[in-house]
UniProtKB/TrEMBL annotation:
Native species: Microbispora triticiradicis
Pfam families recorded: DUF6912
Designated name of the protein: Uncharacterized protein
InterPro entries from the UniProt entry: DUF6912
Length: 169
């Protein structure tokens, strides 16, 4: 099953060093039966895009939760790791508002990564602005919500797994 795992650039560097993403359980996003039922008119590609978008939102929250100072230029970039994991390691994990959320119950070896999706460096100012207003957006501030939603105007770039070392330098 293809699972989209939210991350950050510093966390990706740690995954590379460790050889796996863990410890389990890991929060991810995937094309779940609940997502298929909710988005009945979508094809597989559209459903995977929804799961990827949800993972990108979770990546923004990871960035907001941890310091990025000292992590290097462009650290405030959303990162989503796409992995093909065995179906039996994925458990449904979301409610009605989180139809794509899953739990991966085992660490994900680096060899199971299929691709990495990362913000272009040009998105950094918008990502930083969204991080700054995320608490206000969560509190119902419509202007802050507009800023947070605006980050989704930036499409994540696709990187093959062999490009990870270049991405981290």
């Amino acid at each position: 099953m293809r699972v989209y795992l939210p991350s950050t650039l510093p966390a990706l560097a740690r995954v590379v060093a460790a050889g796996e993403l863990g410890p389990a359980p890991l929060t991810g996003f995937a094309v779940t039966p609940a997502l298929i039922e909710w988005y009945a008119s979508g094809d597989t590609e559209e459903l995977e895009y929804v799961a990827l978008t949800e993972a990108a939102r979770a990546s923004l929250r990871l960035l907001a939760a941890g310091p990025t100072a000292g992590d290097g230029e462009g650290a405030a970039r959303r990162v989503v790791l796409a992995a093909d994991v065995p179906d039996e390691t994925v458990k449904a994990g979301g409610g009605l508002e989180e139809r794509a959320r899953v739990r991966v119950v085992e660490p994900v070896p680096l060899k199971l990564l299929a691709a990495v999706h990362v913000d272009d460096p040009a998105a950094v100012p918008d990502v930083e602005a969204a991080i700054a207003v995320l608490p206000a957006a969560d509190g119902g501030d419509d202007d802050a919500r507009f800023v947070v939603d605006g980050v989704e105007d930036h499409e994540l770039l696709w990187y093959a797994t062999q490009e990870i070392p270049d991405l981290l330098t």
